[in-house]
Model the fold of this input.
Amino acid sequence: MKNSRWLDYALTIIVLTILWYGTSMLLGSQLLPDPLSVLKRLLHAVREEIFWEHTAVSAWRLITALSLAFITAVPFGLVLGSNERLDRIFAPLIYLSYPIPKIVLLPIILMLFGLGDLGKIILISLIIFFQLLITTRDAVRSLDREVVYALQSLGGNRWHFYRHVVWPVALPGIFTSLRISTGTAVAVLFFVESISTSRGLGLYLIDAWGRADYTTMFVGIIALSAIGIVLYETFDVMERRLCAWKNL
Amino acid sequence: MASSPDLLAVTGLGKTFGPGAYPKVVLKDVHFHVGYNDSLAIVGPSGCGKTTLLLMAAGLLPPTAGEIHLEGETIQKPSRKIAVVFQAYGLFPWKRVAENILLGAQFQKINVSQEALTAIKRDLDIENLDHLYPHQLSGGQRQRVALARAMLLRPSLLLLDEPFAALDLITREHLQEHLLILFEKRKFSFVIVTHNIEEAVFLGRRIVIMDPETHGIGEIIDNPNAGTTGFRTAPDYFSKNMTLRHLIEHPHEKQPLA
Done:
């Protein structure tokens, strides 16, 4: 990350903290704890093993769900985007199932895959899957016909087509989709961790809320946001490395 | 067909797009041939099927009628003996110049010597562009990179689809001369599709004029002095320009060749 980005983050955090502090003064620290108290609680929490257990479980669920969505949606999107006939077959199914709010499938998924990690991971994956699939497919569809002709005239085969044309064309769109998906994934994670679980930052947050311990609740919010930011920045760094041609 | 003097023979070629009740006829009964170390220019207005013709000759598009033979072999798919240069360069934006140039050789598992690589870059004046991406180059540089990539495969036939159409006049003439330098140095033939009359006269030893009404060939003009860098200042160049212009503007009126 460039120095200017660190500076941007630092400035944003300072501005948000000032706003937060002001709002806390207006509403009263019972309802909205001030940033200093939250920071003190956070520094206390990071010394406790249980906090890291919650964080690690949430991070594991997020990363696994994103990986699962990636390895299923991206190859499928690459094939659909480059194969009109297959796309025509699957398009009605995708258009019908995409707008369904997958979160309502939670009871069914938990019944099928259990209350453990698997059910939660599958639900998050399922929601991200469609975003990633459609972005990947559409990115490949935008492929310039002349580049395909160029590849064929140079003696490129089907493997070369996917490796040297389809994949690099789709990659920037995939990263954009992954960054957007991070926000969705964190939101769904919070939801699934707020029910039937013994570990996870969602539970940590809901538990604190239930005890009216708003300072600890804010520690949970910060921790969940931090996981989201780390994932977002990871995808950003990967994109700048792997799509260097796009960022010059 | 091995004893044929033609490198490329196109016979009865036709192309119709679209199934059903409203097919679109693009080309009908097209015949021409290209000899060894020969050059052919195909001219005609936009939409007359020039690019379709070239794509079929490259084995990139199947014809609906007729046949294309290269050294006696039927062309049904891209051939190692044919290289293509496209109007929008056909470079891969995500690959650096050095990677773009070597891509065909990499696909076809051809070992390219450092000398051959240096020579082609020197001939096309692209020696210091290796680390750049296509969008960092000017239009003229991009097309020279595309030419280098094609020529590195040592094709018998180079097909060029309006390669200089997007370039300004000076760059276009500069690149036409670069092409002729390669043509004089290396043994290959080329077919260039263009809508530019001067370009067709300067580069094509024979000029095929497409007729958009019949979807076929209107005229074929012999232009034996073309294909040399000095031809642009020859008296013949100007008279051939006039003839070609007249034939394009009055397609069904016969004009004695200059």
In short: Chain A is about 80% helix and 0% strand. The two ends of chain A are 15 Å apart (CA to CA). The mean pLDDT of chain A is 91.
